[in-house]
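pasting for the record
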Amino acid sequence: MLDDRRSQVLQALVEEYISTGQPVSSRAALVNSGLNVSSATIRNDLAKLESYGFISQPHTSAGRVPTPQGYRYYVDHCSPARLRSATRVRIEAFFTDVHHELSRLLKETSGMLSDISHYPAVVIGPGLGTESVSGVHLVHLGDSVLLAVIVAHSGRVSREIVRLRFDPSDNELAQAERLLERCYADASIEDGAEAVQRLESSDAPKKVRSIVVAVAVSLRRSEESTSDLYIGGTSQLGALWEVLAAMSAVLGLIVREAVLRDILDSDQAGTAVRIGSELNMDDVDLSVVSTTYEAGEHGSGRVGVLGPMRMDYRRTIKIVEEVGDGLADSLGH
């Protein structure tokens, strides 16, 4: 834990570097910190911050830049910025005026968030996990392959491929569908899976039960696979990552949906900020600010932005939280 003065010096250096992208001199750190101390004191504080691993000096004659550890300390000890009234009004107006179906709302939210934050934005919709199921239908695609179609009461539809170890008969499929209807009717996917586990061997022939269990396993996978993902603002990549290799690395992440879901995922409830190596990726200049939003009967989703480690964290955290609250208000009623 840094003392108050060195914490102020680090905050001043981080914010100056975020603003300019240039190594910060000791004089600039002194001016921006607002401290009434000597230049020698600031130079000593910078040397200490460097020894702690919070800042580094790219070249002997250059100023200092924050390290990932320095950004982490800054984020953990800064408070979100106050948004300009025009920004707050724009977010509020968006969610007041928009009355689209879920997928279109989430897609347009990703675009709005990117426009306001000036970073690529990602919105992950809620899966089917907490929605009640109105029907499960099985389609025989041939041989041992089935298509399970799950219809939620909200009207959302999920399709899952189910592979069996045998070629089922029409009668076995009909029996399995009736049994699935019994387990899943008006229940969530999780509750339906528990009902399947409670089935007794006397409830159906062995092959029918194996169909039901295989479908239940596939439906549990659909809890994640049915959560839609929308990306806005990818055209900003070139302006944010000036080094071509860095931009290409981030673009490579964005086009891989599974990786993108993983870097936005967080065990932390609410708002999370993940910086550099915390994303389990080596040598990628990337930070992610995200938060969860509750969507009423739809469950919950996540919204966030991606940017270089030199992102404006205080403003970005506030914007992401405001948009998350707006989504929750729109979907939670």
